[in-house]
């Protein structure tokens, strides 16, 4: 998924100095952002108060949207570097195309994982014949310096491991490991992502790692995470220091639990690029504009996205939080 902001703000984030070693309960508000022709997303990372959770650096939550009479998601070809994109659906389908030749329809409960490495381009669209509802999340993971120049690749995993618990908990492990179950998706830093479904009446605890920082993104229903009731589309930052996470639900609900070891490196994130300096971002923009490096996406009916103008001043380093 692309950041379609025509005036994206450059952001420097990462580093451990602003990571609390204690449990916290910090509720973060979403920003409403248009995506393509008919989709509005709730952008939760980067946020005014927080920019990363482990290596997770970008979170969009969208839907449920009734697109029966709409084209649905239509995101033209656009570039990425220095990151992974994670496509996760609760309803609908998304057709992925990329410049390494991948063509894949991603459906609910399936992992679409694109590693941009040094450079890739892709598009995302609802198929011409699509389901009535579209509901999901798009997330980015920052690549560490030692891996960000690798060759780009696409992974699709239709079968993912699950963790079940007494009292109505069922968690699908999207990335990383949770309670002994490991996703087949490739990771480059210690992190995890899981879709946690809670049946009405659930009152349980989920094992977590005290050295990871965590956040909970509510997908549907109203769950209670560590005593905080969450409406759909909200993000609760939890910090570090827990060995288990109390969970309750009075109605059927679902949330994504995202966590990881705090990311050591400072990164510069602008538009759809993650680098380490203003000059590196500027060069990537020039390469996309000139049609070099990122390759070509074949089959999408439409022109690629043009890159926005860079800000007139050099990037200023900032930490994980404001």
From TrEMBL:
Protein name as catalogued: Pirin family protein
UniProt region (Disordered), positions on chain: 300-322
Family: Belongs to the pirin family.
Domain Pirin C-terminal, first and last residues per copy: 194-292
Domain (Pirin N-terminal) ranges: 46-141
Pfam families per the UniProt record, alphabetical: Pirin, Pirin_C
Compositionally biased tracts (Pro residues): 305-315
InterPro entries in the record: Pirin, Pirin_C_dom, Pirin_N_dom, RmlC-like_jellyroll, RmlC_Cupin_sf
